[in-house]
Amino acid sequence: MSTFTQFMKENKKKKENTTYAATRSIVDKNGEPVLWTLRPVSSRENAEIREDCMEEVQVLGKPNAYRQKMNTAKYISKILVASCVSPDLYDRELQDSYGVMSPEDLLFALVDDPGEYDAFTAFVQDFNGFTKSFEEKVEEAKN
Fold first, then answer.
1. Which long-range contacts (CB under 8 A, 24 or more apart) does 63-70 make?
2. Residue 110 near residue 87 (C-beta atoms within 8 A)
3. If 0-12 CB within 10 Å is exposed, 13-18 middle and 19+ buried, where does residue 119 land?
């Protein structure tokens, strides 16, 4: 049986940052892929990102009827950006060096191999506690 004190904040385990080589195209002086530092995204941050990625879509054949639809590509890129500590995707100088103006666009410029981007997405989702990818959940919900 649990006690009230077990739920106190000082008893909660803190999830630590981790590292991951998001791309093989950015290497150190020894030719090894540079590790990125990633942090866990909180449930509140996830909810805010999810809300930001919802779009109103008109229901076909029903004038003035709309439903919400998740923009999954936007959601995934925002979760990846929110998880990334290093490199700092908000750094203006880094964005300028790639000719982009947003952290999401910088992420796509840095990890421009689709296979690496998908692997990075899977790693971040797993790190943040998602046992199935968002796409798998969407497909499961459709069936």
1. 70/138
2. yes
3. middle
Q: Which residue has the tokens 């964005």?
A: 95
Which helix or strand (DSSP H or E) is residue 73 part of?
helix 72-83
Cα–Cα distance list, 52 to 37, 48, 56, 103, 124 (Å): 24, 6, 11, 15, 19
Q: Does the predicted TM-score (pTM) go above 0.70?
A: yes
- pLDDT by position in tens, the chain (length 143): 568 888 898 888 899 999 999 999 999 999 999 999 999 999 999 999 999 999 988 888 888 888 889 999 999 999 999 999 999 999 999 999 999 999 999 999 999 999 999 999 999 999 999 876 556 666 666 65
What the block records as the tokens of 50 is: 């999810």
What type of residue is 124? Answer: V
Nearest to 66 by CA among 76, 54, 75: 54
E-state strands within the chain: 18-20, 36-38, 54-58, 66-70, 84-86
